C-alpha cells in the first residue's frame, strides 16, 4: 500500500477534534472536588456554628482567599503539565505568592505577639487533626483531578501528579475553612500548608503508576 493510500485510509471518516473536551474534563474535576469535599465536611465535621458572623469578618475572607488562590495557581500549573511539551512558565509564581504572603504575615503576627502566646497561635486547638482532615476532604478531588489529567497524556508525571494533588488539597482546604475554628495566620501557615502537602506528596509518589499511558 502506498503512503498516500494509507493516509487516505486513516483519515477516512475522520471527525473534527472536540475543542471543548479539555474544558469539560477540568470543569468536572473541579465540581467533583468541591462537591465531594462539601459532602464529606457536612457528614463528618459540620460547619462552624458562628459561620454567619464570620462571613462579615475580613480576616475570615483572608482565610478563604489563601487556599482559593492556591487552587487557582495549582490549576494553572496542572493544566499546562497535562499537555506534552507545554511550558509552565511563570505560572509557578501563582502558587508561590500566597504561600509567601501567609508565611510573612505569620512571622509578623508572631513577632508582635507576646512570647507566651506564640506557641498557642501556631498550634491552636486542632493542630493534631487539621492536616489529616484536609487530606480526607481532598480524596474526591484527588481522584477527579487524576482522572482529568490522565486523559491529557502528561509527560512529566511526578510534577504533574504533585500539581494535581495540590489542587485537590487546596480545594479541600477552602471547604475545610467552613468548619475550622482557627483564625490565627500562624496556624494557617503551618497546618493548612501541611494539609495541602499531604495529597501533593502522595500525588507525586503515585503519579508514575496512575498517570502512565
Overall mean pLDDT stands at 88
Helix percent reads over 70%
Basic shape? globular
- Return residue spans where pLDDT drops below 50 for at least 5 consecutive residues: none
The topology string of helices and strands comes to: HHHHHHHHHH
Q: What's the number of helices?
A: 10
Largest sheet: none
Number of domains: 1
The count of β-strands is: 0
Measure the end-to-end span: 30 Å
In terms of DSSP E residues, the strand content is under 5%
Structural Rg: 21 Å
The chain-level structural class is mainly alpha
Pfam families: NrsF
InterPro entries: NrsF
Keywords: Membrane, Transmembrane, Transmembrane helix
Protein name: Anti-sigma-F factor NrsF
